[in-house]
Amino acid sequence: MEQAIQVISETRKASATLLQRKL
């Protein structure tokens, strides 16, 4: 469970960074 949460949080951070780069 903890690993899944970590992966999700990291994925969110990566997606947010990509969105910021696009903008």
SS-based structural class?
mainly alpha
Distance between the termini: 33 Å
Number of beta strands: 0
Helix content: over 70%
**Residue fraction in strands:** under 5%
Radius of gyration (CA) equals 10 Å
Briefly characterize the structure.
Helices cover 91% and strands 0% of the residues. It has 1 helix and no strands.
Secondary structure blueprint with pairings:
Elements: H1 2-22
Overall description:
The protein has 23 residues and is mostly helical. The protein has one helix and no strands. The longest helix is centred in the middle third of the chain and has 21 residues, at 2-22.
Any descriptors?
23 residues; mainly alpha; 1 helix; 91% helix; 0% strand
